[in-house]
Amino acid sequence: MSVPMEVVLVKLGGSLITDKRRPETARTDVIERLARELEELDQNEVHLVLGHGSGSFGHVAAARHGIHEGVETPEQLLGVTETQDRAATLNRLVIGALRRNGVAAFSLAPSSFLVSAGGTPAELWIESLLETLQLGMLPVVYGDVVMDRELGASISSTEAVFLALAESLQARGVIVRRSIWLGETDGIYDSRGDTIEELQPEAIGEVLDQIEGASGTDVTGGMRHRLETAASLAELGVESWIANGLEPGLLAQILKGRCDKGTKVLVAAPKALPTG
Question: pTM, whole model, 2 decimals?
Fold first, then answer.
């Protein structure tokens, strides 16, 4: 009997790899450094699925044309094209950095493997991603504009893509060990501004009420959306780790279980069976 494949979902946030306050401004030094760190990882220990936000590329275009609310007018059709193009442009920058640093990355655009309904992923085709993993390559997904059965087109955030992938991977017998969310903050902050080290699922609702909106242009919700996704992943038995990707070497430390920074969103403890 073969051993089930294990994967870790890793997102490089849009606020990490772009300046979200300046349209179409990539942080190329950060992207290159993260690409080097990914090359240094032992891919035989665990398979990664890499995702990244659209930052000041896709978000700005989507907001300009109102694509995140669906397509209602013919004038918005070129906005769909622009949003897809801007998101793909940032993706090519990420793929280019990975290639230059010796990482065999394979780009998978959600607009080509996922369909939404009412802004929520409804169906996806996972075969290409599974074959990429089996081949030993690094699949790379990202926030994208996708066709939508109800809205015509809508935005599918990397968070939404990861949640849909986690469900599909588990249905195929793949173990999703953990999700790692790298942004430009040290994790989730409490009301005093201190980093919450561990967050139980039942406490997430209270913390969500304290989180402010995303900085810069963001049509999907920033940190609030990320924590909501972490809560949904926790229900699937997937722990999340929200940390600061600006700190060199942090990703490797988290993957090796040697990190005491950031916020861990824990999964619910299994309920004890009744006795007697």
Answer: 0.90
Task: Tell me the residue ranges of DSSP E strands in 102-197.
Answer: 105-107, 114-117, 120-124, 138-142, 144-148, 152-156, 175-183
Ranges of each domain in the chain: 6-265
Specify whether the CB–CB gap between 60 and 66 falls below 8 A.
no
Query: What does the pLDDT look like over 90-140, one tens digit per residue?
Result: 999 999 999 999 999 999 999 999 999 999 999 999 999 999 999 999 999
Q: Which H or E element spans position 227?
A: helix 222-235
DSSP state of 270: P
* Letter string b/e over residues 142-160, b meaning 16 or more CB atoms within 10 A of that residue's CB: bbbbbbbeebebbbbbbbb
53 DSSP 8-state letter: -
CA distance 118 to 149: 7
Contact call for residues 166 and 9 (beta carbons, < 8 A): yes
Determine the topology of domain 6-265 in CATH: Carbamate kinase (3.40.1160)
